[in-house]
Write the structure tokens for this entry.
Amino acid sequence: MGPTPDTVIIGAGQAGLTTSYWLTQFGVEHQILERRDSLGGAFQDRWDSFYMNTPNLALDLPGMPYDGDDRDAFISGDAVVNLFRQYAELIAAPVHTGVDVTRLSKAPGGGFHLETSLGNLRARNVVLATGAYQVPKIPALATKLPAGVTQLHTHDYRNPEQLPEGAVLIVGTGQSGGQIAEELHAAGREVHLSVSIVPEAPRRYRGQDLIYWMLETGKHGPDYGVNALTTKALPSPAARFAPNPLLSGTDGGHAIHLRELGRRGMLLHGHLETIDDGAITFSDDLPERLAAVESIFAQRSGKAIDAYIAAAGIDAPEQEPVPADNWLPSGPTQLNLADANITSVIWASGYKLDFRLVDMPLTDQWGYPRHDRGVTEIPGIYVVGLPWLTRHYSAIVGGVGLDAEYVAGRVAVA
């Protein structure tokens, strides 16, 4: 690891590697510092049976597009880790693993000073590619759980055998919560679900996997005046943290519907509000929550995709209407953990960004870097790979390359 590279990229996930590819194309000397001992990014933190939620068609890395025979299939977590390792080798990415950057500050005379676990170095530019899944977000209520109840975040969940015998309460019904619920139920566990407002969505929409249309609409929609999946259309800065739709890549890929989970025997509850001496209280708005998660897609993303298809003149079949489903679970809004034999709680509560290593005024009141297309307000500091950096899918494999190319181009002329 040289002491004075022109540019340093912090993080070697899809954001860091694609930025490295483009910096090489622009002739910019650089190094990548990765705190993990091996390549593969945050996909190394997923559970054993994890499959990508995005189909193979979205495994589109600059310089290494997907060229397989099954664009609508889904690969395992181990396979995507291997994919990144192959990509790093293909592009000859100058990666240094096992290097944790602990502080980034301005250097006297210009440039930036980086304090790392392997010593200090200086760089003219720094690209923050530390990812969208930095720190597990655990509600303060977690401290109220009885000591005898096992609790862990989805970040640390690996398989059903990891948990003690008994029922499991999963708090949150995003992609991780929904998929882990299915796995635990299939393993014979009684599963309780505290329902959050994460939109359900069809796995396939108008003849294509949904992710295909999300990527196409985000990338090309603005050319036809459809900006709904770009950052400029967000109703507020807080909307940058909105969750992705409830989909799964397991078993060939499928949508997850909460009412169907309930019909299969999982026990649905409202929002977790209080924990008091082993007694849990949920909100009493479960019917409204289920109605909301079922309607959001059509009102937002579905409408944007339809507008793009129409504006671009694409010949795509109409989507079959979803039959009305009025099934409602029955159950109390209060639950005693011991009486229900709930021995484990899994917090499917997502992640939060963490830029504490940056010893400069980088972020806004939501903890998100202040930037314009990845170029921050601090000259020489850039960000890539965050959700809604420029569009909905700026953080995923098939979407990050566009932002990486722009940022690398700006670094090249800085």
Remarks:
- Residues 3 and 119 are 9 Å apart (CA to CA).
- The two ends are 23 Å apart (CA to CA).
